[in-house]
Model the fold of this input.
Amino acid sequence: MKALQFSVTVPQWLALKALGPLHRRLFYQGPLATIKLAERPEPELPSPQWVKVKTLMCGFCASDLNLIFLKDSPTASPFTSFPCVLGHEICGEIVEVGSAVQEFEPGEVVTVAPHLNCTAREIFPECPACRADRPGNCQNFAQGPLAPGMFIGICRDTGGGFAPYFVAHQSQLFHLPPGLPPEAGAMTEPTAVALQAVLDNRPAPGEDVLVIGGGVIGGLIVQAIRALDIDCRITVAEPSAFHAETVLQAEADQVITDGDLFGRTVQITGATRYKPLIGPDILMGGYHKIFDVVASSPTLNTALRCLAVGGTLSIVGIGHDVKLDLTPTWLKLQTVKGAFSYGYLNRNGERIHAFQLALELIAAGKIKLSGLVTHRFALEDYGRMIETNLAKPRHQAIKTVVAFL
Done:
C-alpha cells in the first residue's frame, strides 16, 4: 500500500537545518525530504486485542507540520520510531478484529484515541499517569512490545492515518454515533484536546479568558468553553481576519487582530499598564486564564505579562525551545501548566473518556464542526496540502484532511 512515511537521520537533520530556511520545499521534496510516498506492507495485528482499520479520513495536524519541518524539540525523539506513517486524527472502518476484541466488529465506523499507553502496550501494572486516568501522558511510551511512539502516527509498528490501513488497540476505539460523517470522526481528536485543556484550566464564572491563536484548536477551545456552559468573557488574539471571523462564529466575545494585546487588554479587563526602563510593558490585572495555542517565545512572554495575579497559563501549542522572562510569574504568583492530550473525566461520578464527551457534544450540536474541514486532499497530493497549511489565511483553510472515500 502507498503511505506517507516520515523518517529523519542526524546528518539529514543537520543538512535541512542549514539549507531548509533557504529552500523550504527541501523538507517535503527531493532527496533530503523528511516525508515521502512509500510502498509499505499492510500492518498486521500486534496481538489478539488489536484491530485493523481501513482509513476513511485523517486530519492534518499542526504537529504533523512541525514534525515535517523539524520544528519540534529533539527532547521528544526517544518517544518516536522511524520510519513511521504520519496521521493521528483518524476516522475509519474496522476490517479485521483480533480474537480477544470485545464490543467491536468488522464494518463498524470508529474514531481513534491514538495514544499508545500502558494498556495499548499491554504493560501491567500501569504507570502512575495511566492509573491517574491520563493515558495520553503515559510514562511508558518507549517500553513494551511496540516500538517507541507516543501515539499512532509516530510509531513504526502501527501505521498511521495517512495510509489506507493502520492497526489500533481495542481500548483506543470509539464508535462514531449514527448520523455523524467521517469529518466528525477525524475532528474528534482535536476536539478532545480542546476539551481537556479547558477542563484542566477551567475558567470560573465571570472571569476574563484569553485564547492566543484562532486556528483549529483555538476555535475549539472557544467552543468547548461555551459547550460546557461556562459563563465567562472570551477574547481571542488572532492576526488573520479570516480566522478571526471563525472564532467570532464560535462565540468569542471579541478578537484582537491588530497585535495591540497590551492596549486592548487594558480596555477589555481594566488592567493597569506599566512601562519598564527597557523592554516590553507589564500589566497588573488582566486575564484570569490564558490558553496559548501558539506557544512561541513572543506569545508566551506576552501572555505572562497580560495574565492577572494568581492567573493560570496553559501551554497548548507544541513548539521548540523558548526564552522566557519569568519575572511576571513570581511577581504575580502565576501558574504555568502544560496541556497535552486527554484522558478520563469524572462526570457526576461517571468515569468517561474525553473522546466520549467530545462525541456527545458534537452529536448534540453543542460543538459545531460544520465548515471547519475546508480542504480535502488525496494522499498523492500531500505536497499541495502542506503548502495550503503553510499559508492558511491565503487559502482560507481551517482544517485540511486526507480523504480515502
Notes: The mean pLDDT is 96.
